[in-house]
Specification:
Blueprint lengths: L6 H47 L9 H20 L9 H26 L5 H29 L7 E7 L1 H13 L5 E8 H4 L5 H15 L3 E6 L4 H12 L5 E5 L10 E5 L2 E5 L7 H36 L5 E7 L5 E7 L6 H11 L4 H7 L12 H7 L7 H7 L3 E3 L9 H4 L3 H4 L5 E3 L1 H4 L7 H13 L3 H17 L5
Parallel strand pairs: 1-2, 1-3, 3-4, 9-10
Antiparallel strand pairs: 5-6, 7-8
Helix pairs in contact: 1-2, 1-4, 2-3, 3-4, 3-18
Organism: Blastopirellula marina
Subcellular location: Cell membrane; Membrane
GO biological process, one term: polysaccharide biosynthetic process
Length: 485
């Protein structure tokens, strides 16, 4: 019996071959720059470690070259096997966790190799490996973050994506992908269900799907799934899985925990395993230890800044140096959140007069409780400490007392409870923070509802890695004054 190959079959094989080449090229253009960034991180870190050790050791000889090449080789294998380059859709906090674990694995393997197989390893070389391990944990995540941020601005970086689904939901998903270009996903085509329904027969639908994927050179299909009949969207998943080997399903409910949720098979039924990490006493203890440890570590730097600001506030405005305001904390307990006073003593009167003179700004004030040109601010020093968030330094005392954390939702007042609605019980589960997702995601340039959504995301997806990511992003946000006024 002979097998007849039709022109349609030949066309399908040709398209599949072209798509494979396109996917390979996209992977190459996306992964190779990240590999180069990783290599540069290792070289810079070990060279810096040698410079520091040269201050202590006199016999440095060829330790750098003897240790660097083996480390690069071990890291290349470790990173590849460990998924360091499976970055499509990977949140930065997840990448931070993965890279930290892989860095430590690579350095520990190198250290073990020195101890077991290299009889000529000197104390200097072992010290070089150990110091590199410490420094790489500090340097490499930052290089990774900067690399992804810079690469995300390039039109050739990332995997091309086709978004399919009902118009409103699909467009919302498309905007989310475009807004988060560092996730290495480039939306190149939107195919709505309304457009797809113009194909009346199954062969026509298959042809439209093949043409869409082929013409856009898409590596990934993102399905924007509405809350519809499970049987219906299961068949849609099966259909699109024949058009692309990678299919990502985005349900209409954006409020699910996402970062650490894992799929589970329950006798052929899919389950989602979400961990309530905020109920773990050990993890909360680690958060508390991180807060106190970082404050003590940076106190020699922060104390002179603290004293300087206090003196400038006193010199520029009569009245107290500090300003305290009642806020709602964890479990509904109220506390006084402290700040450097950045407003004039008669702030309320100045605000009311300003709003009476500019009635068009009253809506902005009532909506956001913020004004870009706030008449209450102390001229000079007040604007500076607010733009760089230095007015919040006294809240470190709140952190030491346990009223606040370094990272958490922005502490709110009683009048804001009604705005949080169903999210308020989530807010009460955590200790409010000095910085948080809102501060590093646009701050005053976001709406109040977006702030609430970010707070809810933080609570649902909390982990120490998310805290570390937010702290790192806070440095960039403060230095560049992103969203500050």
């Amino acid at each position: 019996m002979s097998i007849v190959v039709t022109p349609q079959d030949q066309d399908f094989e040709l398209r599949a071959s072209r798509r494979s080449r396109s996917e390979f090229l996209q992977t190459l253009l996306t992964v190779v720059p990240m590999m180069l960034a990783d290599g540069v991180s290792i070289v810079i870190t070990m060279a810096f470690a040698q410079v520091l050790l040269a201050l202590v050791f006199t016999d440095v000889h060829y330790a750098l070259t003897r240790q660097l090449l083996p480390l690069l080789a071990i890291a290349a294998v470790t990173y590849t096997i460990g998924g360091a380059y499976r970055i499509c859709g990977l949140h930065p906090s997840q990448e931070l966790r993965r890279i930290t674990l892989l860095d430590n694995t690579a350095l520990l393997l190198l250290l073990l190799a020195n101890l077991l197989f290299s009889e000529s390893s000197t104390p200097y070389e072992l010290s070089l490996v150990c110091l590199t391990l410490v420094l790489l944990n500090l340097i490499h995540p930052g290089v990774r973050l900067v690399s992804r941020t810079l690469l995300s601005t390039q039109p050739w970086w990332g995997w091309s994506v086709v978004v399919v689904g009902h118009r409103e939901h699909a467009q919302r998903v498309l905007k989310h992908i475009q807004k988060n270009a560092e996730l290495a996903m480039r939306p190149v085509k939107l195919l709505t269900s309304e457009e797809f329904s113009t194909a009346s027969t199954t062969p026509e639908k298959e042809q439209l799907a093949r043409d869409t994927v082929a013409q856009s050179h898409a590596s990934i299909v993102v399905m924007a799934v509405e809350n519809a009949d499970p049987t219906s969207y299961c068949s849609d998943i099966d259909f699109w899985s024949t058009q692309s080997k990678d299919v990502i399903i985005v349900p209409a409910n954006f409020q699910w925990p996402t970062l650490w949720t894992e799929a589970r098979d329950i006798g052929g039924i899919m389950g989602l395993h979400a961990r309530a990490k905020l109920l773990s006493h050990w993890r909360l203890l680690s958060k508390r230890i991180l807060d106190i440890g970082l404050i003590l570590l940076f106190s020699p730097v922060l104390l002179p800044i603290f004293l300087l600001i206090a003196a400038l506030v006193r010199l520029n405005s009569a009245g107290p140096i500090f300003f305290g305001h009642k806020r709602i904390g964890r479990s509904g307990r109220t506390f006084t959140a402290w700040k450097f006073r950045s407003m004039v003593p008669n702030a309320n009167e100045a605000l009311e007069k300003y709003l009476n003179d500019h009635p068009e700004l009253r809506v902005e004030w009532e909506r956001d409780h913020k004004l870009k040109d706030d008449p209450r601010i102390i001229p000079g020093i007040g604007n500076i400490i607010r733009k760089f968030s230095l007015d919040e330094l006294p809240q470190l005392w709140n952190v030491l007392r346990g009223d606040m954390s370094l990272v958490g939702p922005r502490p709110i007042v009683d009048s804001e409870i009604e705005k949080y609605c169903d999210v308020f019980p989530l807010y009460l589960k955590v200790t409010p923070g000095i910085t948080g997702l809102w501060q590093v995601s646009g701050r005053n340039n976001t709406t109040y509802q977006e702030r609430i959504t970010l707070d809810a995301f933080y609570v649902r997806n909390w982990s120490p890695w998310l805290d570390l990511y937010i702290l790192a992003r806070t440095i960039k946000t403060v230095l560049l004054r992103e969203g500050a006024y």
